[in-house]
């Protein structure tokens, strides 16, 4: 029995609210169970120095957790410096979102997606990627509407979900209680057509077989399909 009483292949409730900030070109709050993440996308008519005069655009991301996103207060990273975990997650988000973008069509501009965790209950990086895509989609829609780009730079949806082995059973979309006790922990980033962008899997005290990995992959595909449906509903 899962702590949340969900079925093994059942996602937590998903909701995506768009247009939540006034100034960002794209914004949303994504809620997956009790994990809530604010995602905003900012368009800048410049690129990093290594891309100047290449005609290529860039998509990057930043990630952070508010002090009381968790059950005990964390110090703001602005005071203590970014942790290795934070740096790793924001690089993952950037890589994931770039996988769904035609950087030639985007043109020589940068879109920065900021993902701020308001409340954490497991799967924050996956929620950030899924919500980050929505913010990115909305920002690109503004470029298209303004005639700044002639071809849609978004090539596919990008979404992510966690799966793992909890109490000996493969489960979909782990919350914190499951994640903290999982024997195997995995994060799956996929396109809307279910092509893999990145897979992060590790044994947390128990090894896993190829067959178990395949079961987790099947669960992840089911979860990503549901997340993509939520994205489509959010962006119209």
UniProtKB/TrEMBL annotation:
PROSITE patterns (UniProt xref): RIBONUCLEASE_PH
Domain of life: Bacteria
EC number of this enzyme: 2.7.7.56
Stored Pfam families: RNase_PH, RNase_PH_C
Domain Exoribonuclease phosphorolytic: 10-139, 158-223
A single MF term (Gene Ontology): tRNA nucleotidyltransferase activity
Catalytic activity: tRNA(n+1) + phosphate = tRNA(n) + a ribonucleoside 5'-diphosphate
Keywords, sorted A to Z: Nucleotidyltransferase, RNA-binding, rRNA processing, Transferase, tRNA processing, tRNA-binding
BP GO annotations: rRNA 3'-end processing; rRNA catabolic process; tRNA processing
InterPro entries listed in its UniProt record: ExoRNase_PH_dom1, ExoRNase_PH_dom2, ExoRNase_PH_dom2_sf, PNPase/RNase_PH_dom_sf, Ribosomal_Su5_D2-typ_SF, RNase_PH, RNase_PH_bac-type, RNase_PH_CS
Binding-site positions, phosphate: 85, 123-125
Function description: Phosphorolytic 3'-5' exoribonuclease that plays an important role in tRNA 3'-end maturation. Removes nucleotide residues following the 3'-CCA terminus of tRNAs; can also add nucleotides to the ends of RNA molecules by using nucleoside diphosphates as substrates, but this may not be physiologically important. Probably plays a role in initiation of 16S rRNA degradation (leading to ribosome degradation) during starvation.
PANTHER family cross-referenced by the UniProt entry: EXOSOME COMPLEX COMPONENT (PTHR11953), EXOSOME COMPLEX COMPONENT RRP41 (PTHR11953:SF0)
Similarity comment: family membership: Belongs to the RNase PH family.
Quaternary structure and partners: Homohexameric ring arranged as a trimer of dimers.
Protein name: Ribonuclease PH
Organism name: Meinhardsimonia xiamenensis
Name of the gene: rph
């Amino acid at each position: 029995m899962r702590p949340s009483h969900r079925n093994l292949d059942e996602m937590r409730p998903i909701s995506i609210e768009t247009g939540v900030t006034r100034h960002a070109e794209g914004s949303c709050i994504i809620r997956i169970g009790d994990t809530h993440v604010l995602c905003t996308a900012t368009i800048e008519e410049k690129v990093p120095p290594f891309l100047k005069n290449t005609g290529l655009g860039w998509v990057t991301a930043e990630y952070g957790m508010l002090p009381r996103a968790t059950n005990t207060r964390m110090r703001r990273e602005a005071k203590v410096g970014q942790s290795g975990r934070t740096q790793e997650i924001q690089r993952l988000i950037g890589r994931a979102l770039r996988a769904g973008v035609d950087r030639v069509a985007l043109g020589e501009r940068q879109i920065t997606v900021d993902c701020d965790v308001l409340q954490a209950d497991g799967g924050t990086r996956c929620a950030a990627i899924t919500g980050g895509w929505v913010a990115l989609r909305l920002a690109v829609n503004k470029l298209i509407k303004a005639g700044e780009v002639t071809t849609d730079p978004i090539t596919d949806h990008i979404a992510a979900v966690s799966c793992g082995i909890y109490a000996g059973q493969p489960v979909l979309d782990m919350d914190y209680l499951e994640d903290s006790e999982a024997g195997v922990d995995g994060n799956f980033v996929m396109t809307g057509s279910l092509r893999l962008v990145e897979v992060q899997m590790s044994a947390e005290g128990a090894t896993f077989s190829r067959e178990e990995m395949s079961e987790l992959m099947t669960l992840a595909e089911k979860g990503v399909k549901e997340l993509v449906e939520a994205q489509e509903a959010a962006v119209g």
